[in-house]
Amino acid sequence: MGTDPNFTFLKAFFSARIDRLRNVRDDRGAISIETMMIIAGLVVAAGVAVAIIATKVSEKAATIK
Question: What pTM was estimated for this model as a whole?
Answer without folding.
Answer: 0.48
